[in-house]
Write a structure and sequence with these properties.
heterodimer; A: Rossmann fold; Rossmann fold; 6-stranded mixed beta sheet; 5-stranded parallel beta sheet; 15 helices; B: alpha+beta; SH3 type barrels; 6-stranded antiparallel beta sheet
């Protein structure tokens, strides 16, 4: 049995110091600066910010959050579709962070304030239950989340849903976005840290073709401070050695093949299709949409969605100054944005990254604006 | 949203589709459609949006629980990880206490 938290090996300060010393040695051996690596998970950024890990990273090492927040990459027209469906009388159910995500002119919170039936749910199961409870209404599940979350959506589809239930899919597929970042000409990212629990579903094996194709190593990491430090150390070692390999630093949660039953369900319901990720780019194979055989559950097929009626064709001058896309591709930091903490705050977000608890701007804002103590040292 | 939250399986429904799970003292019902391997009472599972997504191997349970225990002890409002963990626990279907007892052991049934 484990003792107090301080005694646990994933918190041990002596181990943390040993890891940070080793990390400094690796970065010194690489001999360039900065060495830039990217993680693609909001929970990793939360861990880095809340445990103050940037203070422990070498100055020459940049650990950047990439497009690891599914809410943040939900494109503006997708929000417009959900707002339009609410305006057209549907009961729109969605995960909490989606409520304040800005559309072109309006968010679902605005639609709700206008009397639209918008429901925040924690599980897709609750959306199905709402459809059962309101048989005379159309209930639309505005589905966000990466593949880990999409397997739950797939499970309810395969288990059977009421006639009046449909899905507006904004599910995204992470590996595709890593490709886009790696292939950007201006990118400085030399290696990637993959999210532990997402890889619990997909398995770490899916990153092998990516590493081979982009010549960048990938390390799968957990969320404990020492998990993150150990993964960053392994990644810098692979960069120094020039080895574009995949290493699983989270074996207690992630296997090579992942969760096969869950993946079988996912691919019975969803196809990977190209889609725009907000502020970033058209990501080939970046979206998960319902397969044609599930057309009857696809809100985009079931309804004529009039986004122009909810301002979907308007211009939003403030939003045009937002640099979320540049931040998510690692070319800028939240504190580089002119709107950060001024016009754009968690209560009045302009950009998507300030909305979600997994968005880098919100995380930086909550943990003090620029959670990198090295600059003040 | 990437964080699954660990809980201990108390009982499995007769049809095998759901489990009653204890998350740090909160009893909730989880769907078992997509869990990676069969679970039994006493096992620990990771919950994501109301579904068990992984049975946690026994030797990893303490390490996994420790992170979440510590996060949940954070009393400061606005801690993003703690909020996400609470959101995940809320994603499992709430179980009325009497129903939970009925689904549980016989000795729990009496008042």
């Amino acid at each position: 049995m484990a003792g107090s938290f301080e005694e646990l090996k994933f918190r041990d300060p002596a181990r943390a110091r040993a890891l940070t010393d080793a990390l400094q040695r690796e970065v010194d051996l690489i001999g360039r600066k900065p060495v830039s690596v990217m993680h693609v998970c909001g929970s990793h950024e939360q861990a880095i910010a809340r445990f103050g890990l940037r203070a422990a990273f070498p100055r020459e090492l940049d650990v950047i959050m990439g497009p690891g927040c599914p809410v943040c990459v939900t494109d503006t027209p997708e929000v417009d579709e959900a707002v339009a469906l609410a305006a057209q009388g549907a009961r729109v159910c969605t995960y909490g962070d989606m409520l304040r995500l800005p559309g072109t002119s309006r968010s679902l919170a605005d639609a709700q304030a206008d009397g639209g039936k918008v429901e925040v749910i924690y599980s897709v199961v609750q959306a199905v239950e709402l459809a059962q409870k309101h048989p005379a209404e159309q209930v639309v599940f505005f589905a966000s989340g990466f593949e880990t979350t999409a397997v739950a959506t797939a499970a309810v589809v395969l288990a059977g849903v009421p006639e009046n239930f449909s899905i507006l899919s904004s599910h995204k597929y992470v590996p595709a976005a890593m490709d886009v970042v790696a292939e950007m000409k201006e990118t400085s990212i030399e290696g990637f840290i993959a999210a532990g629990h997402a890889a619990a579903i997909t398995g770490w094996g899916i990153f092998e073709p990516f590493a081979a194709r982009t010549h960048r190593p990938v390390v799968v990491a957990g969320f404990e401070p020492l998990d993150v430090l150990a993964a960053v150390l392994e990644l810098t070692r692979l960069i120094r050695l020039g080895r574009a390999e995949v290493v699983n630093c989270y074996p207690r949660c992630v296997s090579r093949d992942g969760n096969r039953p869950a993946l079988d369900k996912l691919w019975k319901v969803f196809d990977v299709v190209g889609g725009v990720w907000r502020g970033i780019a058209m990501v080939p194979r970046g979206n998960l949409d319902l397969k044609p055989e599930w057309d009857r559950l696809n809100a985009r097929r079931r309804f004529r969605i009039d986004t122009a009626a909810v301002g979907g064709s308007d211009r939003n001058l403030l939003a045009e100054q937002c640099i979320c896309g540049t931040i998510m591709t690692g070319l800028a930091k939240p504190s580089d944005c002119a709107l950060f903490g001024k016009e754009c705050r968690p209560e009045t977000p302009v950009g998507a990254c300030m909305v979600s608890s997994e968005g880098s701007c919100k995380i930086w804002h909550v943990y003090g604006g620029h959670p990198d103590l090295r600059g003040a040292a | 949203m990437c964080l699954g939250v660990p809980g201990r399986v108390l009982t499995i429904s007769d049809d095998g589709l759901t489990a009653l799970v204890d998350f740090f003292g909160v009893k909730r019902e989880l769907r078992l459609d997509i869990v990676d391997e069969p679970v039994q009472p006493g096992d620990y599972v990771l919950n994501h949006v109301g579904f068990a997504i992984r049975r946690i191997p026994t030797e990893e349970v303490q390490e996994t629980l420790a992170l979440f225990d510590q996060i949940l002890q954070e009393q400061a409002a606005g801690d993003l990880m703690a909020e996400d963990v609470r959101g995940e626990i809320a994603s499992a279907r709430s179980v009325p206490s009497t129903e939970g007892a009925a689904a549980g052991k016989d000795q729990d049934r009496g008042r």
